[in-house]
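I am writing to request your help with a piece of structural work I have in hand. Thank you for your consideration; the sequence and its tokens are set out here:
=====
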Amino acid sequence: MRSPLRICAVAALSLACTSPFAIAQQKPQPAAPPAPYKAVAIVPPKPLNDPAFEAFRKHVGDVARKRDRNALAKLVAAHGFFWDRPGSPRTANNKGTGIETLSAALGLANPEAAGWDMLAGYTDDPTASPSPQHKSALCAPADPEFKAKDFNALLAATKTDASEWGYPVAPDTEVRASPQIGAPVTDKLGLYFVRVVPDPSPAAAVAAMLRIVMPSGAIGYIAADAIAPIGNDQICYVKDGGAWKIVGYIGSGDQ
């Protein structure tokens, strides 16, 4: 099963991760009763069917878990590496090497940062999709398919932004009555966007549960690794001379 939030799992309790959910849950939210909303269907991203890519990402994951910078450098494109940051123009790295830019993006030189764990988390995800901005690059994790018009209408109707929404990574995901893994199941989610809202209870963080509002307006809790955010940071790959390389990073990184 895809585990999109594993990218920041190690830092989950301190909220030191790049997931839009973590950012949204730190924002002050107006006190308002939950309201029903129209469900917008999604088609989950599919794994990339390429044995060479699968072997490569697993190799990168092994290197990341060993925190071996020298070995990682051999897996990163030396030239043309890009880092697309929110609020900044898209630029390619023309001054340093690819490994230097990737290291800066993820904070790999900082032993207190979660950069190596973030990188390992990206490589756990088997999905990838073509980058609209960078020719030949595939970026992971891939986003689901959905009707943008309907999603934008949902945001307008609920007066929310995309960081407050996620989608189940599998159908019939169990929703529980309280933030405990063994709490009674009250409902199951279909493949549609679901709103994630802040939870003042520390029990949710300890149990790695997220508080959600279902389309009916009912409140429930779901395992954090069972739901994925829209607009997650991405690691990008390219096939260079028959071999896969890491060629870019999209997102704010370890900030």
